[in-house]
Amino acid sequence: MDSEDTLKSKRIRLRIPKDYHQEPVISHLVSDYGLTVNITAAILGANAVGDGWFDLELKGIDTQIQDGLSYLQNLQLEVWDDRKIADW
């Protein structure tokens, strides 16, 4: 098994603006990119008013994780990764 095929884990914090509440953003990470997504924390206002914040643990091979992160960036969502964990 080559190191590219080794399962990795990456923690991120994701802000999903209210405009995206009807979009299956997290579901796409699973169905389109083959990632396993564990929601470790979440804040979503009553009646989905305002932005949602999600702490996610993404599991997959490097290319799956990078492709999933690119998808989130293409949506122009705010993403903090574990290198900025002190800022959380």
Task: Describe the fold and architecture.
The structure is a single chain. The termini are far apart. The model has no long low-confidence stretch (mean pLDDT 88). This protein is 23% helix and 35% strand. By secondary structure, it is of the alpha+beta class.
Number of helices: 2
- Report the C-alpha radius of gyration, rounded: 13 Å
Sheet with the most strands, sense and barrel status: 4 strands, antiparallel
Question: Helical amount among residues, as a percent range?
Answer: 10-25%
Strand composition percent: 35-45%
Ends: how far apart? 35 Å
Main sheet: strand order = 2-3-1-4
Poorly predicted residue ranges: none
Structural class: alpha+beta
Total strand segments: 4
Detail the topology: elements first, then pairings:
Blueprint: E1 8-16, H1 25-31, E2 36-44, E3 52-60, H2 62-74, E4 78-81
Antiparallel strand pairs: 1-3, 1-4, 2-3
